[in-house]
Design brief:
This protein starts with 11 loop residues before the first strand and ends with a helix. Helix 1 packs across helix 2 (about 45-60) and helix 4 packs antiparallel against helix 5. The protein has helices at about 25-35, 45-60, 115-125, 130-135, 140-155, and strands at about 10-15, 60-65, 65-70, 70-75, 80-90, 100-110. A hairpin with a 2-residue loop joins strand 2 (about 60-65) and strand 3. The chain contains five helices and six strands, in the order βααβββββααα. About 40% of the residues lie in helices and about 20% in strands. The chain is of the alpha/beta class and about 160 residues long.
Length: about 160
Amino acid sequence: MGVVDILTAERVSVAGVAEGEVRSKIEALSRLGALLARNHAEVSAAEIEGVLFERERLQSTGVGGGVAIPHGVVDRLEAQLGAVLLCPRGIDFDAIDQEPVTILFAVIGPKKTGEHLKTLARVSRLLRLEDFRARLLAQPGGASAFELLHAEDSRGG
């Protein structure tokens, strides 16, 4: 299973004039909660947002290199879900390297630890290359960013 198997184009967003600005960690987690809740009546955006905030209270998921991977568990879900938020201007996210975060890839799903950890590893692998991150941040909207993610993931990211 690839990273894009947990994504849809509707759950990829670029912060900006067209899709709405994001200026803070709070706004980013809120947007990710809304994206993850799209087309999933069994879980609300508020619940997902709460799960993501709770995880961030434990330790920042800003892994460095402008990347954050917010994640959490919602047992009612049957499978992992992902959402991507691109913030080309960068936001303070308390990342491990203290640098602004520009790419947020959120993952939620049931507490199937092995699958959850594999998904997080796949996301990390996909976003490891600086050149790919730069191309991703250059995308004008969620649909084109999704297409680029799909193409890179299909190559073995």
